[in-house]
Amino acid sequence: xxxxxxxxxxxxxxxxxxxxxxxxxxxxxxxxxxxxxxxxxxxxxxxxxxxxxxxxxxxxxxxxxxxxxxxxxxxxxxxxxxxxxxxxxxxxxxxxxxxxxxxxxxxxxxxxxxxxxxxxxxxxxxxxxxxxxxxxxxxxxxxxxxxxxxxxxxxxxxxxxxxxxxxxxxxxxxxxxxxxxxxxxxxxxxxxxxxxxxxxxxxxxxxxxxxxxxxxxxxxxxxxxxxxxxxxxxxxxxxxxxxxxxxxxxxxxxxxxxxxxxxxxxxxxxxxxxxxxxxxxxxxxxxxxxxxxxxxxxxxxxxxxxxxxxxxxxxxxxxxxxxxxxxxxxxxxxxxxxxxxxxxxxxxxxxxxxxxxxxxxxxxxxxxxxxxxxxxxxxxxxxxxxxxxxxxxxxxxxxxxxxxxxx
Length: 407
What we know:
This protein is mainly beta. The protein has helices at about 110, 115-125, 125-130, 200-205, 220, 280-290, 395-405; strands spanning about 5-10, 30-35, 45-50, 55-60, 65-70, 75-80, 85-90, 95-100, 135-150, 150-165, 175-185, 195, 225-230, 235, 240-245, 255-265, 270-275, 290, 295-315, 315-330, 340-355, 375. The protein is globular, with a radius of gyration of 21 Å.
């Protein structure tokens, strides 16, 4: 399965109520902003968690977070690429967290010596040992947005359950189901184009490339890439091998990826994977991104990038965070200028549920499903009170504010 499924169609947005399930009362919380201690800039996608609990979230593009728990907690833990793990008391009020970039103090020549192919193969050989060897039921927060130029035309959110079998079992038993969802901003009928993204939270299952090697690590596919060692880096307090990959000169019928692998130096476990689709052959990129579009619409791909993070807990690595970004231009053939669209899908694992009950086929969210077709238009400010979410950015808040004023 090599396609990142995007559906382009004329504006048709039927809405149906989604199911709602009970959850723990998350009555304790901490909130604040995370910034770089040197530059003061906000840090996005910092992993924020409660010690000794499974509750977690990530910071938004403004560096803001709110973390909730069902029990009182004294500390909050922060982890981010290029920074050491940082713990801070969960003080009342808004926290201002300053994370200091990690500088390497080891002899780098001793770290980066070796074949990148051997390091990647060793990491693949140790997936059975390093990744979860039992089924898990994860609670996740998922958000997808679409912008037409700089204006948001669509915002939808969901809490989902994600059942993941052991990493030795492959992805075919993995499923996702909606718990609660809403559309905050739906595309207007005055827009000339409706963009729909297929798959919703199941994209994180598909792009879990450690468990689904067909995306990247298929042996025949991997032989078509060139690899090289990059500068080592810290993720949290663990040192990482950094392996960069790019399409090799061998011809291929589909678009390949550029990217970077972060591999734990001690465990040889994948910690972070960054992928960006090769756009040099427009026709190949279009086939990878588009499922259906009007015949008179010209589609120009500009970016398809994916980030997958894994976290280490109790000696095993697990999916922690997924983000995809897709940019493309669209214009009807009789028009002079193209319109640029940006679609962003983001998922963070916020809790682990027990027992790990499989999701039944009747309630599963399929890869062909579209979240906007299943979610309800709803603006209850307490909608996510009992869930951990990714805080909306200031720009998202403005888009939602305009929607409220218009009603």
